[in-house]
Amino acid sequence: MLYHLLYPLHTHFSALYVFKYITFRTIYAAITALVISFILGPWLINKLSEHQIGQSIRKVGPESHFKKEGTPTMGGTLILLAIVLPTLLWADLTNLYVWVTLLVTIGFGAVGFVDDWRKVKKKNSDGLSARQKMVWLMLISLAAGVLLYLHPGFKTTLAFPFFKALHPDLGLFYILFAMLVVVGSGNAVNLTDGLDGLAIGPMIIASGTYMLFAYLAGNAKLAEYLQISAVPGAGELAVLCGAMVGAGLGFLWFNTYPAQVFMGDVGSLSLGGALGTIAVITKQEIVLVIVGGIFVMEALSVIAQVTSFRLYGKRIFRMAPIHHHFELKGWPEPKIIVRFWIVSIILALVALSTLKLR
């Protein structure tokens, strides 16, 4: 909005030419998101507490979590606002990629909101059924995949890290692939959200990484130099990623141990969906496995646990997702959180190294 209002005036006021630069708008999208979080955060937490919108804790979980019963949840609505509003203010709103990503972010957030609200009403941890949730997430992701597929010039090829000559073209099947990436990303972040600040930390790191990927993909010269897929228009997603970083930092202020508020599914699903969509658009879908390695590890731990128990009647971990395994081994919650953040930073650096190691 500001881009469209102020940039055209640069012929009269030369200082406004700065609105042309994606880097400038990315920085201020992040700052705007941070300011929104700091202003609305305390008010939202008070409102959630006032209306007794608190977290229900599963009785089969670690005993240390029982004291968290009643902590305000659905704080992800703050994250959503702090992503969407700065993006609308600072991004080029004629860009389809921005709207597709916002569609997924808001759509996944809506599914998460309904899920959280049902949990609050029932006063237990049962919201939408797994099938209901999955159907809605798949429909939203499928719509995004179709929009991208129909967009002129959008490539349906895949790029593999470390293999510059490997670019298989999926054609029409790319729609299904994109759907799997986005849904998988949303659910993986959702599974990671189990400790104070555990999910939002790696999410900030991943958003910052894809902010760089988006900028590079949208710059034809830099993309050619680095031998990565050039995606005209993808650079605007750096603005959205900047908003995600700012929103994440702002939320972490209130979510850090001991948390004043939980993000709930409304936050984790929307963040995961946004990350998956950006990975698809920037043609860095496979690298998402590295960047979001923490999320992948959490999801795989659940899959392995369920599969092992159903086939052999034995559990691999003391409890899944894997962060609960470390809790039951006696690791203090802050130690698990910070160590997962450290691993996330290392994985992000490895992912960035793929830009040159080809």
Describe this structure as you would to a colleague.
There is one protein chain. With 358 residues, this protein is an all-alpha fold. The chain has one domain (2-353). It is 64% helix and 0% strand. The chain contains 14 helices and no strands. The protein has helices at residues 2-6, 22-50, 76-90, 96-122, 130-150, 174-192, 200-217, 220-226, 237-255, 264-281, 288-291, 293-312, 322-328, 333-353. Helix 4 (96-122) packs antiparallel against helix 10 and helix 7 (200-217) runs antiparallel to helix 9 (237-255). The longest helix is centred in the N-terminal third of the chain and has 29 residues, at 22-50. It starts with a helix and ends in a 5-residue tail after the last helix. The relative contact order is 0.16. The mean pLDDT is 92.
- Could you state the order of secondary-structure elements as H and E? HHHHHHHHHHHHHH
Mean pLDDT: 92
* Beta strands, count: 0
What overall geometry do the principal axes of the alpha carbons give? globular
State the low-pLDDT regions, or none: none
Distance between the termini: 39 Å
Largest sheet entry: none
As for the number of domains, it is 1
Task: Give the proportion of residues in helices.
Answer: 55-70%
- Give the C-alpha Rg: 20 Å
Quick take:
This protein is 64% helix and 0% strand.
State the main characteristics.
358 residues, mainly alpha, 0% strand
